[in-house]
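not sure who needs this but someone in the group chat was asking about Ribonuclease P protein component from Crassaminicella thermophila so here u go. i didnt clean anything up, its just raw.
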Amino acid sequence: MKDTLRLRENTDFKKIYAKGVSLANRYLVLFYMNKEQQYNRVGFIASKKVGKSVVRNRARRLMKESFRIYSSQVKKGYDLIFIARANIKDATYKDVEKAMVHILKKSKLLK
């Protein structure tokens, strides 16, 4: 993920929630906003509704790995937030990867 930075500031998250576009599928919710930069910024969230800390960390790891594989194919210049839904705790890696590809294609961010 050379051209990808992490979203960390609460104000950045709030801007994307307020002004961005959202899409969802069974395992993930995607908020994204065009920033017209030369790089992407990404945030991964798993709330307490997903489960205890072990389950939430697993969900974030699955999302990060799925995004890492396709990060070179994602259009540049966007802020992305991936949010894990409660169903992700029963999902396998392949399920999350398919959901990631589906939501990126649906948003037309995948080249």
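also The chain has one domain: 4-106. if thats useful
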